[in-house]
Structures are given as C-alpha cells and as structure tokens.
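Progress report, Aim 2. The chain analyzed during this reporting quarter is listed below.
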Amino acid sequence: RLQFSASGFQPPASSIQYEAFLRHAEGHFLIFEITMAAVRDEEGALIGYLSFCHELTEERQAQRELLRTKSLLQTVMDTAPVNILIVGATGNIVSANNSVERSLGYVVSGLIGEQASVLTTQPERLRGIFEQTLETGKPQQAMLEMLSADGVTQAHQLFTSLMRNSQGEATGIIAITTDLSQQKQQIDALRAEIEQLRAEEAKARALFETAATLGATDDLYGVFAQIAQSAALYLGFDEVTVYRADPEQGLLVGVVTAQ
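Predicted structure tokens for the chain:
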C-alpha cells in the first residue's frame, strides 16, 4: 500500500507491486503494473528506488471481454428452452444447462465428467457425430433417441458445433438437443390416418371393380347400384347413377358424378 503524508509520498521500505491508471499525452488512460523496489548501499542505507512499468491495458481489456462473454454464455445456457451441453474432445460433459434437468430429469452437477453417451440409447451414433464434428470442423445435425433419468426414451433433434480457443485450436463441442417427441407422435398419428384412408380407398376401388364385373341380369341391377353407391361414398363422390346401356343384353353402366 502506498502511503502519503504532509511531507509527500512515503515509498515502501523494500518493494511493492500495484496497478495504476496513467494518463497518455493524448488524454486517454492506460493501465500499468508498477513494481517499485528499494535500493540500498553496502551498509544497508536506503539510497533510492527502482520503478518498473509494464502496460496491461490490452490484457485487462481482454479479461473484461472474456468475463462479459462468459456471463452472456451463462445467461443463454440458463434461459434457453433447449438442452445445451458443452462436451470435451473425448466426449465427456464439461457443462450443461438447466433445461437438461427439466426435460431429461438429470441433476446437472451429477453429469459433469460423465460421457455424453449415457444420455442416449444410441451411444455409437452419438460418438460418430462427435467424431465427424471434430474431424470436419463443420456443424452436424441428426435425429437421436435420448434417454431420460427415469428410463423414458425421447425423440430429439441434435445439433453440434466445434468450439475453438483464441489460437483456433479445437477444444470441444457444443451440443444442442430439442425434444421432438410430441411432434413425432403427431406425425405417427397422421401417418396412421393416411394408411387407414389408403386402405379404405383400396377397399372402395375393389368394390367398384366387383360391381362392374357382375352379370348383366335384371336381378343384379339393384345389387350393382348398391355396391356402386357405397364405393362412390368411400371415394368421396357425391352420388352414383346406374342405368342400362343396352336393355336387350341387360348391360349395366355406372356413372359417378361429383360437385
């Protein structure tokens, strides 16, 4: 600590190191680390001081920027509605956000140091995606089946991106997953409905073809009309009209009309 008195500055008895803001000739301030050491003669008497100044302006600015970046990253991780994992080059979990606990049920602190593959039923697939991210340096995406803490599987979409340090060296991977379980259930239900409609359409067409191949007799006229009408309704037509094309031979023709 520097001391001041009425007689002026009182330097330290041995040495001291501190940081100070020094004004530049142009008016702005620079940050310096100052080291001051006492100089003594052979008898130990104080004869002067040596001061060394080392500029720290860029270093301190870089540190402040790093703190701001870390704070921003932490804010994003804490508030993002998706799962975010910071994974090391060997696949170990370095950090995870709160969404992992909300969606998968894991305690985040218990995941640190574990392999990310414990979170999925497809560990080899996940490792392959990580390896491809590291080798190519390009973002990857894939569908992955995640495993919750209580053993329930979830369909997730996975995005990975390479992390680099200030020298451009790869240090790990950012992995982001989004739960698509509800969307997948809706898609599966829609597919089932489509398959059912296709089956009904096939059934309707079969009925229509059967009606068209019936024998041409007056007794079958009503049967043809009934089957053709049912088939038309299956296919979405408004009505079907059946009439005799050749009364002498008893041939029947079905005409389907639609609005």
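The two ends are 96 Å apart (CA to CA). The first helix runs from residue 57 to 79. These observations will guide the mutagenesis work planned for the next reporting period.
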